[in-house]
Structure prediction request, 208 residues.
Amino acid sequence: MNTYNFDPSKPIVALTFDDGPSEYTSRILDTLQKHGGRVSFFVDGIRIAEHKSKVIRAHLMDCEVLCHAWDHPDLTTLSPDEIKTQLTDTINAIEAVTGKVTKMFRPPYGYINETVTKVAKEMGLALINWSVDPNDWDTSDVDKILDYIMSNVKDGDIVLCHDVYDSTAKAMDILIPELIEQGCQLVTVSELLQYKYGDLEAGVLYPH
Ligand code: ZN
Prediction:
């Protein structure tokens, strides 16, 4: 039997943040430190060196640091070797800082094709997208981001956000305590997927 770091009888949501780490990651971590909960970051490998302390802090706060890609290309335009390099370099950079080997990644833009899936399978990686998308990259309106998430999020959802915008970090100041107050448990995407699907399969896209 599995044991969980949350109460399975109550709602769970995974907030995920792509394209960082950045100067705005700290604000999100501050909010989590104040209110509780944990989130997942799908990082760009190229940004890790400059923001190493934020990656370490996220890891120490039981947040999850996972692979997006090295410098955010559309992986469907790359050769198998180029895809492998994008993912391997990022996974190695994460491991060097957190000591954890990530077994999943989120393809930039959510774009996948047969080649990306095949490389993922060879590398033992699951592919992770999302179920709620507030398009936070497309607006600087904090209320718009907040309203979209609050009116669409339900138990078991994976929310796509980006920790590279001031407006997203400000929306989290309000969203995180509000979700917690409503009885929602903020868990990592790994915890949520493991609960829903069991062990993840390499080369398979989640959620499905
Ligand atoms: Zn991205």
